[in-house]
Amino acid sequence: MYTWIWRHLPGPVALKLGEALLLVLAICALLLFVIFPWVDAHLPISQVTVGGNDG
Amino acid sequence: MGRRVSGAVLDGPTPEPAPSREGMTTGDKIRFVLRGIGQTLITFGLVVLLFVVYEVYITNWFAAKAQHDVKVTLKTEWANGEDDPTVALPGGKVTHLPLGKGIANLYIPRLGRDFAWTIVEGTSQDDLEKGPGHYPKTALPGQVGNFAVAGHRVGKGEPFLNLDHLHAGDAVIVETESHFFVYRIKGDAATNDLGDRGADGMPGREIVDPGTSPVLYAVPDHPLGTQPTEKLMTMTTCHPKFTAQQRMVYHAVLANTYDKPSGTSPMPAAVRSLYEGVS
Question: How many CB pairs under 8 A join A and B?
């Protein structure tokens, strides 16, 4: 997977490194701001209330 | 990675043309598949690690911003002298406060001078990301009955991270637009026995299953409908830390009430004195 991505990044090695970094940051941002908040809302680990009183 | 025996280079910067799978030996194919599985597992592990970082640290950043916003809004409303929504109107009870809005400030000297949270109305996930949330339909600060508040223990601001540090008799200060209320954690203060149920049958602390609503009743741990006489406060959070298996519940009873001449009045000396010896 990573080798495939590396091969398909255009430009010389230095440019490829920059692109790879950008790609990693983009994926982290996607996880942190979109996917994790969604997952978190569907997990019971952060529930702190008792009873059926949730507003 | 990158060791090749047959010349079918599959990774790394390479001047050779894209390799074709035609030239792969059986060994290469096995290596190709195993490496794919390995990379997938490592990637999955990193994503899970990042999720833990998100839960424990990053949610706190978002929550800090949300808490700051409700705190500033509440302060502005008080400074503008808007009607205190937590004061029950004569002849009728306040039955509905806007969800997600700040209603009071919470201070607990035992948890430090910087422990100052604005309590919002409501206990939905959205409300609790802003700060500790008041269970709608339970009493308001200073009222007869049970002023019940929920808060996160780990992540999302974690207001109640160290709630388990509280001792019997500790002060819990609730500030509304018009009053400072000082509640005292129940239990036997002399021996710091939080489990002591005292004369009214309510302990300072109890660990219960998530479905246990009686801890929120106007008279906690008594049959529903029992006529309340005491002015109580209850705080709930998850227990043990990092899990949601149980709930840790603290009960407190109103000890003192101090009027505020105006919405922006500072803590009276008697309330400030509760911070003596606190760093």
Answer: 104
pLDDT digit string, tens, across residues B10-31 = 555 555 555 556 678 899 899 9
Active-site residue B152, yes or no?
yes
B266 burial (CB, 10 Å; 0-12 / 13-18 / 19+) is exposed
**What is each CA distance from A41 to A35, B10, B129, B215, B242, in whole angstroms?**
10, 40, 11, 25, 15
B36: number of Cβ within 10 Å:
14
Quick one: how far is CA B193 from the chain centroid?
24
Is some CB atom of chain A closer than 8 A to the CB atom of B169? Answer: no
How large is the ipTM?
0.84
pLDDT tens-digit readout, B231-272: 999 999 988 888 888 899 999 999 999 999 988 899 999 999
What pLDDT is recorded for position B117?
97
- Asked if B224 has any chain A CB less than 8 Å from its own CB, the reply is no
Mean pLDDT across chain B = 87
A10 touches chain B (CB under 8 A): no
